[in-house]
């Protein structure tokens, strides 16, 4: 019987998720060369949160990780809305800081980053069905709740 080599199907979504996971590893290791290959030089960046929490932009612009005390270690990295090149990562730093990064990629390169600190995010897609419907919009991703002993966080709705 002849053995057949079957290549696994790697979708664009899988590649995009892999790119973002590689980006976080490169940032943690201070690998500026890899970061430069993965992020467009004219990346569009949006930020919501306290000004002193703009850690990712400091890393993306070349500040050494040793000078940025904040470490991004995602608890989840997920593709949302297949075909849109959108990957969302979220994580916690201790029990007081929650962050979400919404990455948009084109041809395997990050072209946009939306960064949110201490903000619950709900991502919706008005163009297609996904998790559930709420007032005519379709929720495709929501922040993962975690017990905050000292209060609640503001919420934002992000439409794609």
Automatic annotation (TrEMBL):
- What highest taxon heads this organism's lineage? Eukaryota
Protein name, per record: Wound-induced protein 1
Q: Specify one Pfam family.
A: WI12
| Cross-referenced PANTHER family | OS05G0342100 PROTEIN, OS07G0691300 PROTEIN
Q: Which InterPro entries match?
A: NTF2-like_dom_sf, Wun1-like
What SUPFAM superfamilies does UniProt report for this protein, alphabetically?
NTF2-like
């Amino acid at each position: 019987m002849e053995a057949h080599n079957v290549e696994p199907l790697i979708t664009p979504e899988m590649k995009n998720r892999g790119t973002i996971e590689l980006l976080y590893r490169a940032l943690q290791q201070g690998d500026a060369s890899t970061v430069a290959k993965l992020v467009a030089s004219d990346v569009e960046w949006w930020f919501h949160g306290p000004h002193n929490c703009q850690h990712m932009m400091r890393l993306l612009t070349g500040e050494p990780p040793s000078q940025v005390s904040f470490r991004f270690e995602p608890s989840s990295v997920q593709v949302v809305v297949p075909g849109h090149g959108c990957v969302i990562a979220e994580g916690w730093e201790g029990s007081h800081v929650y962050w979400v990064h919404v990455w948009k990629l084109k041809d395997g390169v990050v072209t946009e980053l939306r960064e949110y600190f201490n903000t619950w995010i709900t991502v919706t897609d008005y163009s297609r069905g996904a998790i559930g419907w709420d007032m005519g919009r379709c929720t495709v991703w929501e922040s993962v709740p975690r017990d905050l002993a000292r209060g609640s966080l503001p919420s934002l709705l992000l439409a794609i």
